[in-house]
């Protein structure tokens, strides 16, 4: 991608060291954006920033910590002179393995999931919103999940947190839309990230089983990739997305079609 649709737009990506966030940083930079890659994995974020090129730099952030979120946001504002967009993508995915059902779940798993995957998104929102309002053309894209409205027998904490992210995005779009801020949601389906590909190579038999499971439920020729989502985020953060507000984009190859 070599167009300049995002030329000089100042954007921070929370959760940028791997997967969808990393692909998004690279896509935004390729379209001319000035990007701050923020992640708790600063080494990974630094590598992504170097790969993206242009005016891209990395900062450390722990979205569960308000001071850390503010510091990362201030670093981006100081470097760029303001902010025009944010992709709030960070999440703690490790706790998914402990997320069972409403009766069996340990409440510490629920607390951790909500702290990072929902409260953390609120902290990021609070940090960037004043700058987006000041920009006059601000945009936020939240990463949610089809789990928020798909209905599953497991992972209730994850689904509740993602449903909350959807509600937060609609609140932001409704409250600050008149001040030039639009807020939308990327809801990915099953996505084969670079990290997942490495895990699959290490356990080909298990990987084949999972790939077959999701492929059977996807009315498409392939499974999702991080770049599929990065393209949607780039559109929503550009002028092409200015008349879209409070929308949830199910990017899943059609695996969660709804009436």
Overview of this protein structure:
The protein has 259 residues and is of the alpha/beta class. Helices cover 48% and strands 15% of the residues. The strands form two sheets. Strands 3-2-1-4-5-6-9 form a seven-stranded parallel β-sheet, sandwiched between helices. β4, α4 and β5 form a beta-alpha-beta unit.
Please name the defining characteristics of this protein.
259 residues; 48% helix; alpha/beta; seven-stranded parallel beta sheet
Describe the structure concisely for a colleague.
With 259 residues, the chain is of the alpha/beta class. It contains nine helices and nine strands. The chain is globular.
Question: How much helical structure, as a percent, in the residues?
Answer: 40-55%
Spans of at least 5 consecutive residues whose pLDDT stays below 50 are none
Number of helices: 9
Largest sheet: 7 strands, parallel
Mean pLDDT: 92
Distance between the termini: 34 Å
Residue fraction in strands: 15-25%
Structural class: alpha/beta
Strand order of the largest sheet: 3-2-1-4-5-6-9
Gyration radius, to the nearest Å?
Answer: 18 Å
């Amino acid at each position: 991608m070599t167009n300049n649709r995002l030329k000089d737009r100042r954007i921070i990506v929370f959760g940028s060291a791997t997967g969808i966030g990393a692909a998004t940083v690279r896509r935004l930079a390729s379209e001319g954006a000035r990007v701050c890659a923020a992640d708790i994995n600063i080494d990974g974020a630094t590598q992504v920033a170097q790969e993206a090129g242009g005016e891209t730099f990395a900062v450390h952030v722990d979205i569960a910590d308000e001071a850390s979120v503010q510091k990362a946001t201030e670093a981006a504002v100081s470097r760029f002179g303001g902010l025009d967009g944010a992709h709030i993508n960070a999440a703690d995915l490790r706790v998914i393995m402990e997320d069972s059902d409403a009766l069996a779940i340990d409440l510490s798993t629920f607390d951790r999931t909500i702290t990072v995957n929902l409260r953390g998104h609120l902290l990021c929102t609070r940090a960037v919103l004043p700058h987006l309002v000041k920009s006059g053309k601000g945009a936020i894209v939240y990463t949610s999940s089809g789990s928020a409205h798909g209905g599953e027998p497991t992972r209730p904490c994850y689904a509740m947190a993602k449903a909350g992210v959807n509600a937060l995005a609609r609140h932001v779009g409704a409250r600050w839309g008149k001040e030039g801020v639009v807020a939308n949601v990327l809801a990915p389906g099953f996505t084969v990230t670079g990290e997942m590909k490495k895990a699959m190579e290490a356990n080909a038999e298990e990987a084949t089983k999972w790939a077959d499971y999701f492929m059977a439920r996807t009315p498409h020729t392939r499974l999702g990739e991080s770049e599929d989502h990065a393209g949607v985020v780039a559109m929503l953060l550009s002028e092409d997305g200015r008349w879209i507000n409070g929308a949830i984009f199910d990017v899943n190859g059609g695996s969660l079609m709804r009436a």
